[in-house]
Amino acid sequence: xxxxxxxxxxxxxxxxxxxxxxxxxxxxxxxxxxxxxxxxxxxxxxxxxxxxxxxxxxxxxxxxxxxxxxxxxxxxxxxxxxxxxxxxxxxxxxxxxxxxxxxxxxxxxxxxxxxxxxxxxxxxxxxxxxxxxxxxxxxxxxxxxxxxxxxxxxxxxxxxxxxxxxxxxxxxxxxxxxxxxxxxxxxxxxxxxxxxxxxxxxxxxxxxxxxxxxxxxxxxx
Length: 221
Known about the structure:
By secondary structure, the chain is an alpha+beta fold. The chain is built from eight helices and four strands; from the N terminus they run αββββααααααα. The chain folds into two domains: 2-124, Roll (Ubiquitin Conjugating Enzyme), CATH 3.10.110; 135-209, no CATH class. The protein is 38% helix and 14% strand. Strand 3 (46-55) and strand 4 form a beta hairpin.
């Protein structure tokens, strides 16, 4: 709670934080900046009324952010999820690619980029940072980018399944598809990837890619 209060006091003075059980609620006007707040002498270019639900186990649990002022249409093409919350970012991609997972980093990074994109879309009809596809194709694209591999579903699933293990076995087939065992092929590359993508994050990726299937413990053929 103290970290949240410090972040909004410095960067977002129109937000307020309160506690509701195991959830921290952040509510008020979110100020949108074109650059980092320190390098924006002209101030905010827009503001959006928001409500954020932040679990005390952050960043293990993804925050939910809602635009509550009625400014953004509740449709997928405006990056609003079916439950009404904002599709801020692909959480696992951010966990893997961002060096700083603090609440302040999330507040000034993915959230600012999301609402900055909404602001410019209102004015130009175009997304300034591009956009991913909706649903599973967008997840596959984001996870492939995070892992640094080609966006092919079969290969992505096998990489992620390997990464769910605490220590991939050398006798498993190498995910490159060359036919060799992992110990004789890209084992070093996979272990380097394993350092960036811990098993708990890989398991979350796998659950989202296969929401109707249980995780399998064995990944060998």
